[in-house]
TrEMBL record:
<dbReference type="InterPro" id="IPR008928">
    <property type="entry name" value="6-hairpin_glycosidase_sf"/>
</dbReference>
<dbReference type="InterPro" id="IPR043757">
    <property type="entry name" value="DUF5703_N"/>
</dbReference>
<dbReference type="InterPro" id="IPR054363">
    <property type="entry name" value="GH95_cat"/>
</dbReference>
<dbReference type="GO" id="GO:0005975">
    <property type="term" value="P:carbohydrate metabolic process"/>
</dbReference>
<dbReference type="GO" id="GO:0004560">
    <property type="term" value="F:alpha-L-fucosidase activity"/>
</dbReference>
<dbReference type="Pfam" id="PF18961">
    <property type="entry name" value="DUF5703_N"/>
</dbReference>
<feature type="domain" description="DUF5703">
    <location>
        <begin position="63"/>
        <end position="225"/>
    </location>
</feature>
<protein>
    <recommendedName>
        <fullName>Glycoside hydrolase family 65 central catalytic domain-containing protein</fullName>
    </recommendedName>
</protein>
<dbReference type="InterPro" id="IPR013780">
    <property type="entry name" value="Glyco_hydro_b"/>
</dbReference>
<dbReference type="InterPro" id="IPR012341">
    <property type="entry name" value="6hp_glycosidase-like_sf"/>
</dbReference>
<dbReference type="Pfam" id="PF22124">
    <property type="entry name" value="Glyco_hydro_95_cat"/>
</dbReference>
<feature type="domain" description="Glycosyl hydrolase family 95 catalytic">
    <location>
        <begin position="339"/>
        <end position="549"/>
    </location>
</feature>
Length: 883
């Protein structure tokens, strides 16, 4: 019997093999039918056993991941390692967040043919290939297999049995140091020499693989040198402006280090049937110093990984216990936890992991799209503050702040104004692509990201030193888009809706973001105790701003019925709404009319709506999200506008791409039934890989990436763009983190909203379902609650900053306690208002319910042991036995 991190493997004996739901004490006692809970208000913690609280959402494979896109990812936020199997091998693609190869030019053009494959790009570190020389992972010969990604501590365990023998394997990337550790055990029927190869074959980036490529195959292949000595193996890579080194050695057992050639070195384990070997690998930071020698010294210091293991477990536990999610649906909750794991594992480095593949690029140096695309990149961070992961947002904001001077220089050079401009496409240094100047919104959206970070953390030093300077430069640029016309109102000049190309006047995105940005900047100035001369002009602008454009949806989309209106198209067909008015994207300058994002299809038998090509699909959602300008408070403050946004959200198609904000918008508007239906379908539409990874692409197209091995596309050679030729797509498959983040944000928003400085519990949670959570709220609050059969049982709030609290009561009246003592509070229009001190814990229950009825004691939760199949049958988490 071989013990492997709590899992026992014996030839032919493995636990549950198929799809299913986890079985544990939670489900046996069924908290969903109980009024009491496992939440302890005195300690402000969920008394659920560790690590079961998180490991019940582990990723379980009962068949080997035979492809990189089925792979099992590890990471500490800076170093990322993706594991998969190929017949006789375990392959690990190793990446690091700072291995950037910089272009010799600054400003660039994303589609410039001369620049194709010469842009600033992130390079991979290496591949580590363990070759057992026997087809022990082939389904022809497997008798048993199990792999587990333990998300509670970021550890991969794997066991395989075949007629040729058994292998057990354990790996983790240390949370604090990025050190990659392997434990390897074999028990074969005959002696053989296992080889652990470390190789690096650089390549072209292929950022536009789907349309144009550079056929010069030598690009990216230079500067690699593999060496060995008595202490280990090394691959040193020269980049344009820095170098890095991969180093590895055997910690336990014996081995021979052998240089194969300039791009590969091998650790050869002794020829024997049974082996027990420990190996470690490290990737140096990218520096201009002699990092080869530094890497050798760092590797020499590692004599054992025992000390790393304890610290690694504790680091993961600390970060996980900031929040808890149980949406009442095991599959959706599992996806939320995997999304959080991938964010933690990819967003803690010097540079943020990109929206495409995170830090798990698998096909050499291929980097689909290659750059930081603003719309896509920002989405990774949307769910993180509510989950308490403010630190994961910091690398992204640091990247944006560090490149602020480039944004200022660009605004002066190209727009002849003060302030700062950020293109939708930038490289890691912050230089803009010069082909996207008509999209004005990225700088405003990024500034509001800084503002959101402050509102959650209350960090005034961050506000004064980073957030406010960025917001001021964004505001100074953004107000120049507006001009006061003869009607006395400020109108937006020519621009596009997000990434679109149709030129609009009074574009919805620009009207939305100038108001949201200026309001936030004026608030930030007040908090920081600063004044600026422009403030008076800015206030006048937003007080006299052109109104948000509204137009009738048209009688093909909405029918009038006895003073109300019925939707005739879309997923919510036949639903009654209060108005037929919807928001327009803006006034088409060429078209000379108000344009909407979608319009009725010519043949409704086949399609409900057509997208107006040239206007970005999410423009109509901008006032609600991510701007936060419109929310549930608008329902009282401006009911006509609220109802128009509601009709827009319900009428338009839901989630036309993985990065569509529509599910979040439905939650922000409290449309619980619509958002529940959207979430129920989400996995089958956007989660196309069994490890929980998602995709951005158009529905029905994205599946081709996962299933069509022989798929080709017609592309052009940049040296002869007039000719097209077929090009294989399989080597360029990728995952996208945007859809995963939209999904996780939607779950958060269903259970807790606070963006309007009011804490709302379950504002978009549908029907008689049950859930429980611990999430973070704007103002520095940590909030826990339990919902049973559609009824909020209790709310518990911890004040982290000592700010006044405003809670929308989920019942007609309530009792509020601090500890076990009754606490006085005001109630205005259903909102409880009370002062707080740092670390105060408040328990709120329905009037007359004793607080002793909340906590019943500890709850036992056990690790997941199954692969999960979504109810649609079209998505899964993990792999069942398939041999």
């Amino acid at each position: 019997m071989l013990k492997l991190t709590g899992l026992t493997f014996a030839a032919g004996v493995f636990p549950l093999r198929g799809f299913g739901s986890f079985k544990n004490a939670v489900r046996q006692t069924d908290w969903r039918t109980m009024q009491k809970s496992a939440f302890d208000p005195e300690r402000f913690s969920w008394a659920i056993s560790w690590p079961g609280q998180v490991s019940r959402y582990d990723l379980i494979y009962y068949s080997p991941p035979m492809d990189a896109m089925q792979g099992i990812p590890l990471g500490n936020g800076d170093v990322g390692v993706l594991f998969w199997c190929e017949e006789s091998k375990i392959i690990a693609a190793v990446n690091k967040s700072d291995l950037w190869d910089d272009a010799p030019f600054t400003e660039f053009h994303n589609w410039d043919k001369k620049e194709e494959d010469y842009n600033t790009t992130l390079r991979h570190a290496c591949r580590i290939v363990i070759d057992f020389k026997l087809p022990i992972f082939s389904t022809l010969y497997l008798t048993d297999f199990q792999a587990r990604l333990s998300i509670s501590d970021g550890v991969l365990t794997m066991g395989s049995s075949s007629p040729f023998g058994k292998v057990t394997f354990k790996a983790f990337v240390d949370f604090n140091t990025g050190l990659l550790s392997y434990d390897l055990k074999t028990e074969f029927t005959e002696a053989l020499a296992v080889e652990v190869g470390v190789e690096r074959f650089g390549s072209r980036t292929f950022s536009h693989w789907y349309s144009q490529i550079n056929r010069d195959a030598s690009i990216g292949t230079a500067g690699t040198n593999a060496t060995v000595d008595d202490a280990g193996i090394y691959i040193h890579q020269k980049l344009a402006t820095a170098d890095f080194t991969v180093a590895g050695k055997v910690l336990t057992g014996s081995a021979v280090y052998r240089r194969e050639h300039s791009r590969r070195a091998t650790i050869v384990l002794p020829s024997q049937a049974k082996t027990e070997t420990g190996l470690v690998f490290l990737v140096s930071d990218a520096t201009n110093e002699s990092n080869l020698e530094m890497a050798k010294k760092s590797l020499d210091k590692v004599q054992s990984v025992n000390a790393f293991q304890d610290a690694n477990r504790e680091a993961w536990r600390t970060i996980w216990t900031r929040s808890l999610m149980d949406y009442g649906d095991d599959y959706l909750t599992n996806l939320w936890y995997l999304t959080m794991f991938y964010s933690i594992a990819s967003q803690r480095g010097k540079y943020p992991g990109r929206f495409n593949n995170g830090i798990w690029a698998w096909s050499r140096d291929v980097q689909n799209w290659n750059h930081y695309f603003h719309w896509n990149q920002q989405q990774i961070y949307w769910p993180l503050n509510a989950a308490g992961h403010h630190d994961l947002v910091e690398p992204y904001l640091n990247f944006r702040f560090d490149s602020l001077q480039h944004a200022r220089d660009y605004a002066r050079k190209h727009f002849k104004i003060d302030g700062a401009f950020v293109s939708d496409v930038t490289d890691r240094r912050g230089y803009n692509s010069s082909g996207e100047q008509e999209n004005h919104t990225p700088i405003a959206e990024i500034a509001l990201d800084f503002w959101r970070q402050y509102r959650f953390t209350g960090d005034k030093q961050f506000l004064k030193e980073k957030a406010l300077p960025y917001m001021l430069d964004a505001s100074r640029f953004f107000v120049t888009i507006f001009v006061k016309e003869s009607d006395g109102l400020y109108h937006a000049r020519e621009g596009t809706g997000y990434e679109g190309w149709i030129k609009l006047k009074d574009g919805l995105t620009e009207l939305t973001y100038v108001k949201a940005l200026i309001q936030a900047t004026l608030d930030a100035l007040k908090i920081a105790g600063k004044t600026i001369p422009e403030a008076t002009t800015w206030k006048e602008l937003i007080l006299n701003l052109a109104p948000m454009p509204l137009v009738p949806a048209g009688d093909q989309s909405v029918a009038s019925e006895q003073g109300k209106f019925k939707l005739l198209r879309g997923n919510n067909k036949n639903m009654t709404v209060a108005t037929d008015q919807i928001v327009a994207a803006g006034w088409g300058i060429k078209e000379k009319k108000w344009l909407t994002v979608y319009h009725p299809a010519d043949d409704a038998k086949f399609q409900d709506f057509n997208l107006l090509d040239g206007i970005f699909p999410t423009v109509a959602s901008a006032p609600v999200f991510p701007s936060g300008l419109i929310g549930l408070s608008t329902k009282k403050q401006n009911p006509a506008l609220f109802e128009s946004l509601k009709t827009t959200a319900l009428l338009y198609p839901q989630g036309v791409t993985g990065w569509d904000t529509q599910p979040i918008v439905l939650a922000r508007l409290g449309l619980s039934e619509a958002v529940a239906a959207t979430l129920a379908r989400y996995p089958e539409r956007w989660q196309i890989y069994c490890n929980g990874w998602g995709h951005w692409g158009m529905e029905n197209e994205i599946v081709k990436d996962a299933e069509w091995f022989f798929r080709t596309n017609q592309v052009s050679d940049v040296s002869d763009p007039g000719k097209k030729f077929p090009f294989p797509m399989w080597p360029f498959r990728h995952m996208s983190m945007e859809g995963m983040a939209v999904f996780a944000t939607t779950l958060n928003e269903c259970l807790l909203q606070s963006h309007e400085d009011i804490i709302r519990i379950a504002p978009a949670f549908a029907g008689d379902r049950s859930a429980r959570f611990m999430l973070h709220a704007v103002g520095g609050f940590k909030v826990s609650a339990q919902i049973n059969s559609g009824t909020v049982q209790w709310v518990c709030i911890k004040s982290l900053s000592g700010n006044p609290c405003r809670l929308q009561l989920p019942w007609p009246s309530a009792d509020l306690y601090i500890g076990k003592k009754s606490y006085m509070h005001k109630v205005e229009d259903g909102i409880a208002l009370f002062d707080t001190k740092i670390n105060d814990v408040f328990t709120i229950v329905p009037k007359g319910v004793p607080i002793a009825d909340i906590f019943y004691g500890n709850e036992t939760a056990v690790p997941n042991e199954t692969a999960r199949l979504h109810a649609s049958g079209k998505a899964k988490i993990g792999l069942p036995r398939m041999f």
